[in-house]
Design a protein that fits this description.
CATH architecture of the largest domain in chain B: 3-Layer(aba) Sandwich
Largest sheet of chain A: none
Shape of chain B: globular
Shape of chain A: globular
Number of strands of chain B: 14
Largest interface: A-B, 13 and 18 residues
Strand content of chain B: 15-25%
Order of helices and strands of chain A: HHHH
Structural class of chain A: mainly alpha
Oligomer: heterodimer
Radius of gyration of chain B: 22 Å
CATH class of the largest domain in chain B: Alpha Beta
CATH superfamily of chain A: ACP-like
Number of domains of chain A: 1
Helix content of chain A: 55-70%
CATH architecture of chain A: Orthogonal Bundle
Order of helices and strands of chain B: HEEEHHEHEHEHEHEHEEHHHHEHEEEH
Radius of gyration of chain A: 11 Å
CATH topology of the largest domain in chain B: Aspartate Aminotransferase, domain 2
Distance between the termini of chain B: 44 Å
Helix content of chain B: 40-55%
Distance between the termini of chain A: 11 Å
Largest sheet of chain B: 7 strands, mixed
Number of helices of chain B: 14
CATH superfamily of the largest domain in chain B: Type I PLP-dependent aspartate aminotransferase-like (Major domain)
Number of domains of chain B: 2
Structural class of chain B: alpha/beta
Number of strands of chain A: 0
């Protein structure tokens, strides 16, 4: 299991693959409002993270996710079960 | 949050509407003043060729279907005024279910009031929060909404990608054996077909059940028009087939057929079946006729594909960016929302109607012009449409430059 810092680094790495201009993100970074990601880019990012961690993120768990920190919480929950 | 109101959620739509109003274009509010034939209408006072109505077999003006609807309207009235579960099941609703089950060679069928409700009604009745639905990412909104209503865990796999599906099924471990895999036969935006044999192979390896939505492929593919599973010769692998009356059958309504005896129980667990009025008797009557014509409509399917090939080849020759191989749905990708809106408006003013689809309703981040063919199109009509596209091609070339 990865810790929160590893996951934040992973999210940042995958985001930079999609949008190279993205710099450092924090747990409070809003993925849509702050980074202007569209729905296709969010899906691309999630798929890359899923493959990296070998998990599937249920669509119904993504509905309330706005920030990187919230995504990390979902990933921790999925990987712990 | 102090500026939040009940209507805040609608603000992005208001902004988008304002942009359309300023441009004087409303692609989502086209009003057909008169329908002249399955392929022609009067729009803004102009005689327009319809290449965006999903009227694949052109049966909306079938005289026998109209006569059956008219007779039934006289005999049974304008509506059922009730749910299938209460007073809204007439013997002809059940008769149509029996005919659908026979047509598909399946054990039973449930008829719903619309295709949207068929997906909602079947998917929401299967599984609960312990179960998993694994669906193609490009599935229709009715499939996503059915998942939401049912409460199962929902996992997407990459569009038409059996390897990604296999990966997702493997990750589920033992839960995969009871998972519900959902795909469409013909995808309605780009006109591409699902690789059902490869998807069925994943099901054989990992377990689970397969639901195929043949909404756009019913009547279009397969020797008797049962859809893509019939075309690809893998109907035995499909657990549930869902479809609609609103495209090739020329009416409104939906259905699900299955070999599973549990299908009948879905009636009692399906809120979209229980809590809505049943289809009007005249609709059922016309659908019984068009279902028979669909089954026997080899000549209609042949004509549909001749016209599809004619339009596809013509558009490709002009240089349009087509989204898939020849099918009765042709998607043209256009870069930029403003370009797409202006182009669509010019098409309509030149006498051709097709659908304009804007992100996020499109599979990519580009707008899409969505054309659908009909068996009722004539060679001359397609030539006319091609001539319009030829004349307007410079609009997109200038924009690309």
């Amino acid at each position: 299991m990865k810790n929160d810092f590893d996951l934040l680094a992973l999210i940042q790495r995958e985001l930079q693959q999609i949008k190279p201009e993205i710099q450092t993100i924090t747990a409070d970074t809003d993925l849509v409002a702050d980074l202007s990601l569209d729905s296709v880019q969010v899906l691309e990012m999630c798929t890359a993270i899923e493959d990296e961690l070998d998990v599937s993120i249920p669509v119904n768990r993504l509905g309330d996710v706005r920030t990187a920190g919230q995504l990390i919480a979902v990933l921790q929950d999925i990987t712990s079960t | 949050m102090q500026n939040h109101t009940l209507f805040s959620k609608l603000q992005p739509i208001a902004d988008a509407r304002q942009m359309l109003d300023q441009a004087g274009i409303d692609p989502f509010g086209t009003s057909m003043q008169n329908i002249i034939s399955p392929t022609e209408a009067l729009i803004d006072g102009r005689h327009t060729i319809l290449v965006g109505t999903n009227n694949y077999l052109g049966l909306t003006f079938d005289q026998e279907a109209i006569e059956a609807a008219r007779t039934t309207l006289q005999q049974l009235g304008t509506g059922t005024t009730g749910s299938r579960m209460a007073n809204g099941s007439f013997s002809l609703h059940r008769q149509l279910e029996i005919e659908f089950a026979e047509f598909y060679g399946q054990r039973d069928c449930i008829v719903f009031s619309t295709g949207y409700l068929a997906n909602l009604g079947v998917i929401s009745a299967l599984g609960n929060s312990r179960d998993v639905i694994v669906l193609d990412a490009d599935c229709h909104a009715s499939i996503y909404d059915g998942c939401k209503l049912g409460g199962a865990e929902v996992i997407r796999f990459k569009h038409n990608n059996p390897e990604d599906l296999a990966k997702r099924m493997r990750r589920l471990g033992e839960r995969a054996s009871q998972a519900l895999i959902i795909v469409e036969g013909l995808y309605s935006m780009l006109g591409d077909l699902a690789p059902l044999n490869e998807i069925a192979a994943v099901k054989r390896e990992h377990g689970g059940y397969l639901l195929v939505d043949e909404a756009h492929s019913l009547g279009v593919y397969g020797t008797t028009g049962r859809g893509v599973a019939q075309l690809q010769n893998c109907e035995d692998e499909v657990d549930f087939t869902v479809g609609t009356f609103s495209k090739s059958l020329g009416a409104t309504g939906g259905f699900c057929v299955s070999q599973h005896p549990e299908l009948d129980l879905i009636r009692y667990a399906s809120r979209p079946y229980i809590f809505t009025a049943s289809p009007t008797p005249s609709t059922i009557a016309s659908t019984r006729v068009t279902l028979r014509k669909l089954r026997d409509g080899k000549h209609l399917r042949e004509n549909l594909f001749v016209r599809a090939a004619q339009l596809h080849a013509g558009l490709a020759a002009i240089g349009y960016d087509l989204a898939s191989e020849v099918s009765p749905v042709i998607g043209i990708t256009i870069k930029g929302k403003e370009n797409a809106l202006a182009f669509w408006k010019q098409l309509l003013e030149s006498g051709a109607y097709c659908n304009l689809v804007l992100p996020p309703a499109t599979p990519s981040r580009n707008p899409l012009l969505r054309i659908s063919l009909s068996a009722a199109h004539t060679e001359q009509q397609i030539e006319q449409v091609l001539e319009i596209f030829k004349q307007l091609a410079p609009m997109l070339e200038q924009q690309a430059a």
